[in-house]
């Protein structure tokens, strides 16, 4: 399967712990996006990469959040000192070069902070 | 500020009928609009893109309209089936990213 994959699919952690999620995009896609989705809401943009460059970050992305895409391939999203409000589905999507291109989403990582 | 509104109430329709979902937006002048389908516990899946100079676009049983004067897009599923039950999201471009609506849950019952 050559779709977008995310790991882990589910994560339960205690408040104050750090968590890291991984996203593997479709191989020829230059753009990679991270979104957060809570129940009853649409995906909210967090950040995106064009190859290895992080080009935009949402104001939603506090300094506890950091994302990397070191070689322009897979990406990681780290949340430090998790809070209960961080509980959500974290979605990764990839596309070719422009925002107009179809975004292909992964299955998401569901985070629960106790 | 920009706003995208989709009916937050679920739409329940009988199999075989046409489902019509609405996406309204304010303070936007998007060059195009996209519709996605999302099943519970899964990521959204792209369905259709319609550009501002296109009034209507079709794909199999799906039809999308885009009225830039009314700032509205309508999404139709004809001859609906229980398998069409899902949440449908509209998305508009803003700078270099997509902004999604809250989605409308469609339930098609036999």
Strand content of chain A: over 45%
Strand content of chain B: over 45%
Q: Largest interface: which pair?
A: A-B, 24 and 25 residues
The span between the termini of chain A is 34 Å
* Main β sheet profile of chain B: 6 strands, mixed
Terminal Cα span of chain B: 41 Å
**Major sheet of chain A, described briefly?**
7 strands, mixed
Q: What proportion of the residues of chain B is helical, as a percent range?
A: under 10%
Structural class of chain A: mainly beta
The beta-strand count of chain B equals 11
Mean pLDDT metric of chain A = 93
User: Could you tell me the radius of gyration of chain B in angstroms?
Assistant: 13 Å
Sketch the topology of chain B as an H/E string, one letter per element: EEEEEEEEEEE
Low-confidence stretches of chain A: none
Number of strands of chain A: 11
- Average pLDDT taken over every residue of chain B: 94
* Contiguous runs where pLDDT drops below 50 for at least 5 residues of chain B: none
- The oligomerization state is heterodimer
Structural category of chain B is mainly beta
Shape of chain B: globular
Folded structure, characterized:
The complex is a heterodimer of chains A (114) and B (110). With 114 residues, chain A is mainly β. Chain A has no helices and 11 strands. Chain A has strands at residues 5-7, 10-13, 19-24, 31-37, 44-50, 53-57, 65-68, 75-79, 88-95, 104-105, 109-113. In chain A, strands 2, 4, 5, 6, 9, 10 and 11 form a 7-stranded mixed β-sheet that branches. The model of chain A has no long low-confidence stretch (mean pLDDT 93). Chain B has 110 residues and is mainly beta. Chain B has no helices and 11 strands. In chain B, strands 2, 4, 5, 9, 10 and 11 form a 6-stranded mixed β-sheet that branches. The N and C termini of chain B lie far apart (41 Å). The mean pLDDT of chain B is 94.
């Amino acid at each position: 399967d050559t779709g977008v994959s995310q790991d882990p699919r589910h994560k339960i952690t205690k408040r104050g712990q750090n968590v890291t999620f991984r996203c593997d995009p479709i191989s020829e896609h230059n753009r990679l996006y991270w979104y957060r989705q809570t129940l009853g809401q649409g995906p909210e943009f967090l950040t995106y990469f064009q190859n290895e460059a992080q080009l935009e970050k949402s104001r939603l992305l506090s300094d506890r959040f950091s994302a990397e895409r070191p070689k322009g391939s897979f990406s990681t999203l780290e949340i430090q000192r998790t809070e209960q409000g961080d509980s959500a589905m974290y979605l990764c999507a990839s596309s070719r070069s422009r925002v107009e291109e179809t975004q292909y989403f992964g299955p998401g990582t569901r985070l629960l902070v106790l | 500020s920009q706003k995208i509104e989709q009916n937050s109430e679920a739409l329940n329709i009988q199999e075989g009928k046409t489902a019509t979902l609405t996406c309204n937006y304010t303070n936007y002048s998007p060059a195009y609009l996209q519709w996605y389908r999302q099943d519970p516990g899964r990521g959204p899946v792209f369905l259709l893109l319609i550009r501002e100079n296109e009034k209507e676009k079709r794909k199999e049983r799906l039809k999308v309209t885009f009225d830039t004067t009314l700032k509205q897009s309508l999404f139709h599923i004809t001859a609906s089936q229980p398998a069409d039950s899902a949440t449908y999201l509209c998305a508009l471009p803003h700078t270099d990213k997509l902004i999604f609506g809250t989605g409308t849950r469609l339930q098609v019952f036999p």
